[in-house]
Amino acid sequence: MELEKEIKQKSFKSPYHKLVLNILFSASWLNTLQNKTFKPYGISPQQYNILRILRGQQGKAVALSVLQERMIDKMSNASRLVDKLLLKEMVDRKQCPEDRRQVEISITEKGLDVLKQLDDKVNNLENSMSNVTEKEAAEVNRILDKMRD
Amino acid sequence: MELEKEIKQKSFKSPYHKLVLNILFSASWLNTLQNKTFKPYGISPQQYNILRILRGQQGKAVALSVLQERMIDKMSNASRLVDKLLLKEMVDRKQCPEDRRQVEISITEKGLDVLKQLDDKVNNLENSMSNVTEKEAAEVNRILDKMRD
DNA sequence: TCAAAATATATGTATATACATTTAATGTTT
DNA sequence: AAACATTAAATGTATATACATATATTTTGA
User: Which of A39, A98, B43, B101 is the most core-located residue (most Cβ within 10 A)?
Assistant: First the structure.
């Protein structure tokens, strides 16, 4: 739906002004969808993001700093998010022997299982955007990448 | 910068998958910029959003529910955000006599003054995206609006 | 008219974000 | 090696989000 209707605003002072609000609004919209998807499994979008990064390591453990730099939201607190995942036994954490300042995080069977259950639902979420063509998606990606230069 | 580099990911399984992450990442990026802009004035992006809605009313008071439906982030708690703005004396709140369930919020001189000081900085923020053309901005807007249908 | 439903806002609580500070370990310099 | 700087992670604190529930008022309708 048109952003104008979503936030009941007649017009914007420029396409750039609308662009900023549109990105923020769309992210909030996506976040709400994700929250609903993940909630039944007891995790948040950011916790999901961490689990996905860990699964991508094929079981290998990675330092917390690696999670930090790969997360979508750089401001989220990986240390505390890992705490929460530990409590739910979805990840393991151990001190790195070579550098005892570091901790190494890996995903557990339970974590992998939760991701597996979520895979279909996450795919559906992406497929539900099929009113956008692949070409359009690629075009938005190109422009957003450029916007942040 | 390419999202691939920003979150150190070699590739995405589809343009749609990248699109979701790109919107979330870009929103977080914008949010960080906004936070830095607003922080010296003691307000958050959401508080700024409320002040902007109120200024748009030309001094008229509006019900809390009006703020709620015009805010970019529908999940933010307008009631408590208004509390914060009240403490800073940037808004007024009074009970509506016709319907005492409602409260009417209006912006104060102090609030208008803060917005005025911020206008230039917010414009700069938008102008800094000038590597995106107007046409490209409009194109992203069109596609995002469609995505949320 | 009075009870029930609906509406507007406020509050409670758990979690997350933003950012500063602290703690512990490692590296570097003299 | 001792002093200092750097790095990795954890912690403190204020604010914000997500969502459920409560409170007060108004509307509806039996």
Answer: B43
Instruction: Provide the token pair at A17.
Output: 């002004």
What Å distances lie between residue B116 and A15, B53, B55, B111, CA to CA?
22, 14, 10, 9
Do strands B91-95 and B62-63 pair parallel, antiparallel, or not at all (unpaired)? unpaired
Residues in chain B within 8 Å Cβ distance of A73: 24-25, 28
Class of domain A42-126: mainly alpha
Q: Which residue of A has its CA nearest to B74?
A: A28
Segment A101-110 shows an average pLDDT of: 96
Task: Evaluate whether A45 touches A38 at the Cβ level (below 8 Å).
Answer: yes
- Residue of B110, B62, B64 whose CA lies nearest to B83: B64
Whole-number Å distance, CA B47 to C1' C8? Answer: 21
For residues A14 and B126, the answer to whether their CB atoms sit within 8 Å is yes
Task: Give the Cα separation of B6 and A72 in Å (integer).
Answer: 8
Contact B61, B103 (CB under 8 A): no
For residue range B52-95, what is the model confidence (pLDDT) as tens digits? 999 999 889 999 999 999 999 988 999 999 999 999 999 999 99
pLDDT digits (tens, 9 = 90+) for B4-47: 999 999 999 999 999 999 999 999 999 999 999 999 999 999 99
- Within 8 A of A15 by CB-CB distance, chain B residues are 134, 137-138, 141
Please give the CATH number for the structural domain made up of B9-124: 1.10.10.10
Q: Where in chain A is the domain with CATH 1.10.10.10?
A: 42-126
Going from the C-alpha of B1 to that of each of A147, B25, B68, B137, the distances in angstroms are 8, 11, 34, 17
Q: pLDDT, tens digit, for every residue of A78-91?
A: 999 999 999 999 99
Strand C positions within 7 A of protein Cβ atoms:
7-12, 15-19, 24-27
Q: What amino acid occupies position B111?
A: G
